[in-house]
Structure formats: structure tokens, C-alpha cells
Amino acid sequence: MSQTRTPRPPRPPLRVTAILFSFALNLFLVSTVFIVSGNWGLSRNVIVGAVLIAAVAAGVLTTFYVGARSGIHAFVGGLASVPVLALFVFPGNWSFAILAGSFCALGGIVGEVFQRRRGA
Fold first, then answer.
1. Over the stretch 66-110, which tens digit does the pLDDT of each residue have?
2. Which of 22, 100, 107, 110 could covalently link to 55 via disulfide, CB atoms 3.0 to 4.6 Å apart?
3. What is the distance of C-alpha 51 from the center of its chain?
4. What is the C-alpha to C-alpha distance for residues 50 and 26, in angstroms, rounded to an integer?
5. Which residues contact 35 (CB under 8 A, 6 or more apart)?
6. Contact 73/103 with Cβ under 8 angstroms?
């Protein structure tokens, strides 16, 4: 007895514009929140929390822009923004830049999971 599965429809290809959207939005939101919260004189823990929330928001907003396969778009865009964040926004703080890029990917993945549940 052989079990045959119905073939899945092909996945849409990655869109360069969606990756650039995630890249630019992550850079914009993270750097804006970091600069504004730093100028207000907030504690470091509050700044870290606000920056990570901004990175997750960038990933979730990528879900609304892309639709299908938003997790991989947010992953590539978020991690592509890591060197720029580490060199210009958080000078020399690579661990925080990697964390911000990873949280962008996490936001895209969570957004895609909720989008699939809503669509199913």
C-alpha cells in the first residue's frame, strides 16, 4: 500500500523589494527608538526593551507588506541590517545588533504564523 500525498502548491519566490522593506524598516525603527529613548535619559533596560519591541514591530509590519513567506523575508532583511546597526547605530556593540536583527526575524515568523491561522 502506498500513500500518496497531494502535492503542495509551489511557494512564491523571494521578493527583493520585501527584503529591502524589512531591512529599511528595521534600521529606521530601531535607530529611531534608540536615539529618541537615549535623548530622554531613560535607563538602559528600558532602552533595550524599547529597541527590541521596535525590531519585532518591523518584522510584523513586514508580514503585512509581504503576505506569503514573510518570515524568511524578515529574517534576511533583519540579519542584513546587523552590520549597519553594529557599525553606525550601536557603535561596536555587535551582540545588541544581532539581537535586534534576530528579533526582526522573530516578528516576521510570529506574524506569518498568525496570518496562516487566520487564513486557515
1. 988 899 999 999 999 999 999 999 998 999 999 999 999 999 999
2. 100
3. 12
4. 13
5. none
6. no
Contact by Cβ (8 Å): 78, 102: yes
State the amino acid at position 113 in one-letter form.
V
What does the buried/exposed string (b/e) look like for 53-92 if buried means 16 or more CB atoms within 10 Å of the residue's CB?
A: ebbbbbbbbbbeebebbbbbbbbbbbbbbbebbbeebbee
Cα 79 to Cα 101: distance, rounded to the nearest angstrom: 5
Residue range 40-72, pLDDT digits in tens: 989 999 999 999 999 999 999 999 999 888 999
Residue with cell 510584523: 60
Chain centroid to Cα 92, Å, comes to 21
Q: In this structure, what are the phi and psi dihedrals at residue 78, rounded to the nearest 5 degrees?
A: -65, -45
In angstroms and rounded to an integer, the radius of gyration of the C-alpha atoms of the chain is 17
| 108 in Cβ contact with 74 (< 8 Å) | yes
Look at residues 6, 20, 33 and name the one whose alpha carbon lies nearest to residue 78: 20
- Upper half-sphere CA count for residue 91 (Cβ side, 13 Å): 1
